[in-house]
Design brief:
The chain is mainly alpha-helical. It is built from 18 helices and six strands.
C-alpha cells in the first residue's frame, strides 16, 4: 500500500505497535474498501472506496470515540472516577506530544481526508460510463467532499486556535487538495486557509449533489442536510452570523425532522438504533458490535467519565433530558441499547443544534433580532422543559447567556463543549475543579511528535505547553 506523505511518519512508526482491536485499520483492510494502489475503475470501486472512508471516519480512533470524547472530557462538564486510565490524561491535561489519543485523531483524520481526495481525483477520469453510472460516481464525490470538510474542521479545531480576526493568521493544519504521495514535503497553513478550504469543499459537495441524477443518501452518511448543517456550524464558528442562519435553515428544511417532546421519545434516541426525527448525520452501529474498551459508551461510566453533578443541577426538575442524565446512572446518554450496552448510534449533527445556531446568530448579528433568537431557542428549550415559562426569557442581550446554557445542556456528551468554550472565549474550571479559571481559548493540542520528527515539513505549535492549565 502506497503511503501518503502526511501519514507516512505516523503510520510507519505505528507498524511496530501491536493493535488487537477488531477494527484495526492499520493491519486489516475492510472487504468493502479498495487498496490504495489500485485504480478506481467501476462504479462499485467508487462505492467501495467510499465505504472505506466511512469506516475510517467511524472507527473509535476518530468519530467513533476519540473526537467526541475529546470534545467533552477536558471541560467543565465532566468528572473522572479513575476507574481506569482511559482518557484520564486528557481529562487532567497531563498531555505530551506522544499522547496516543492525539496521534490517533491526527492519523485517522488525515487517512479519511486522503481517501476522500483519492475519490475526488479519480472521478475526473471516469468518462466511459452511462449517465446513470456517472451519477453514482458523482454522488460518491459529493459525499467525499463533505467528509473531507468535516474531518478538516475537527482537525483544525483540535490542533489550531479557534477562528477569530486575531487567530486566523496563526498556524492551522496541513491543507489537502489531492492525494499526497509519500516522501513529499508538506507544511501547515493558516487557520484562515483551513477554513477557506473547508468552505470550498462544502460548496463543491453541494454542487455535486445538485448534478442531474445524483441521489440524496441516508442519515448515516453525509447527506444534503448534513452538508448544509456543517456549513452552518462552520459559519457560526467564524462569526458569519447571517450565513449561519441561512445554512441552518437549509439543513432544517432538508432534514424534514422534528424535535421530540416526551421522555420516551427522547430516551429512544439514545437507547435504540432507530433513526430519530432529530438525526441529521450519525455514526451508525449494529446490534452485534461488541467494541468493549473501544466504545464511547464504555468510556462513559464504566471506564470513568461521567457528567458532573454541577451540570446535572442546571436542568429543570421536569426536563425530559433527565430521563437519561438524572439518577444514579452516571453514563448519561451513553447507556447503550437494551441488548448491548456497548453501543449507540453516535450523533454527529442533530436538528436541535441548527435551531440553537440560529438563536445564537440572531442574537449576535450586527443588528440583533432578539424575537427571532427567542423563537429559535424555544424550538428546543420548550420541547425539553414542559414547565418553561417563556415570559422569563427576555428579548434583549441577556438572551445570549440563556442560549449558551441551553446549547450546553442539549449537546452534552456529543463532543461540543471543548470547541464551544474555546470559540466563545470562556474561562472555566476543568479536571473537576483541579484547575480553575482556565483560559481554554488559548490552548491547542500538540501536533504528534512522530509527525513533527518525520522530517516531512510539519512543525510543532510553538509554546503549546505554556497554555496548559496550572
Amino acid at each position: 500500500m502506497t503511503m501518503k506523505k502526511i501519514l507516512f511518519a505516523l503510520l510507519t512508526g505505528w507498524m511496530a505497535i501491536s493493535f488487537t482491536a477488531c477494527d484495526d485499520f492499520l493491519t486489516e483492510t475492510p472487504s468493502t474498501s479498495v487498496p490504495t494502489e489500485e485504480a478506481l475503475v467501476t462504479t462499485q470501486d467508487f462505492q467501495n472506496a467510499l465505504n472505506g472512508v466511512y469506516y475510517t471516519l467511524g472507527t473509535y480512533r476518530f468519530l467513533g470515540r476519540d473526537v467526541l470524547a475529546i470534545g467533552d472530557a477536558p471541560t467543565d462538564l465532566t468528572s473522572h472516577s479513575v476507574a481506569t486510565s482511559h482518557f484520564y490524561d486528557i481529562f487532567r491535561y497531563q498531555i505530551l506530544d506522544t499522547n496516543s489519543y492525539i496521534e490517533e485523531i491526527w492519523a485517522y483524520g488525515y487517512w479519511a481526508i486522503d481517501r476522500c481526495a483519492r475519490i475526488i481525483k479519480e472521478s475526473a477520469s471516469f468518462t466511459e460510463a452511462t449517465k446513470g453510472d456517472l451519477a453514482i460516481v458523482e454522488g460518491c464525490v459529493a459525499q467525499a467532499y463533505a467528509v473531507k470538510a468535516l474531518c478538516s474542521f475537527y482537525l483544525t479545531n483540535i490542533f489550531a486556535l479557534p477562528y477569530s480576526e486575531t487567530n486566523k493568521t496563526t498556524l492551522g493544519i496541513v491543507n489537502v487538495t489531492e492525494p499526497i504521495p509519500a516522501y513529499t514535503q508538506v507544511s501547515r497553513v493558516s487557520v484562515e486557509q483551513n477554513y477557506n478550504l473547508i468552505l470550498s469543499d462544502i460548496e463543491k459537495s453541494k454542487e455535486y449533489y445538485a448534478k442531474e441524477g445524483v441521489k440524496n443518501v441516508g442519515k448515516q452518511y453525509m447527506n444534503k442536510a448534513a452538508v448544509s448543517a456543517l456549513e452552518a456550524r462552520v459559519k457560526l464558528y467564524m462569526g458569519n452570523y447571517s450565513e449561519a442562519i441561512t445554512a441552518a435553515q437549509e439543513a432544517i428544511t432538508l432534514s424534514g425532522g422534528t424535535i421530540v417532546s416526551t421522555e420516551e421519545d427522547y430516551k429512544n434516541m439514545y437507547v435504540t438504533l432507530a433513526t430519530s426525527t432529530e438525526d441529521i448525520f450519525f455514526i451508525a452501529k449494529a446490534e452485534d458490535d461488541y467494541l468493549s474498551a473501544n466504545a464511547l459508551n464504555t468510556l462513559w461510566n464504566k471506564y470513568g467519565l461521567s457528567v458532573n453533578s454541577a451540570i446535572i443541577a442546571e436542568y429543570a426538575p421536569k426536563d425530559i433530558r433527565l430521563s437519561l442524565l438524572g439518577g444514579t446512572w452516571t453514563g448519561g446518554k451513553m447507556r447503550g441499547i437494551t441488548t448491548n450496552n456497548q453501543i449507540s448510534n453516535l450523533p454527529i449533527i442533530r436538528l436541535p443544534e441548527m435551531f440553537l445556531i440560529q438563536a445564537e446568530a440572531y442574537a449576535k448579528q450586527a443588528a440583533p433580532d432578539f424575537e427571532k433568537a427567542k423563537n429559535a431557542l424555544l424550538e428546543v428549550a420548550a420541547k425539553r422543559n414542559p414547565d418553561l415559562d417563556e415570559s422569563d426569557i427576555a428579548e434583549d442581550q441577556t438572551i445570549i447567556n440563556v442560549i449558551e446554557k441551553e446549547r450546553t445542556l442539549e449537546l452534552i456528551q456529543e463532543g461540543h463543549r471543548f470547541f464551544d468554550a474555546r470559540r466563545l472565549g470562556k474561562v472555566i474550571n476543568v479536571s473537576d475543579g483541579a484547575y480553575t479559571n482556565f483560559d481554554i481559548a488559548k490552548f491547542v493540542y500538540p501536533i504528534p511528535s512522530s509527525e513533527v520528527n518525520s522530517g516531512f515539513g510539519v512543525i510543532q505549535t510553538e509554546g503549546w505547553s505554556n497554555n496548559l492549565p496550572r
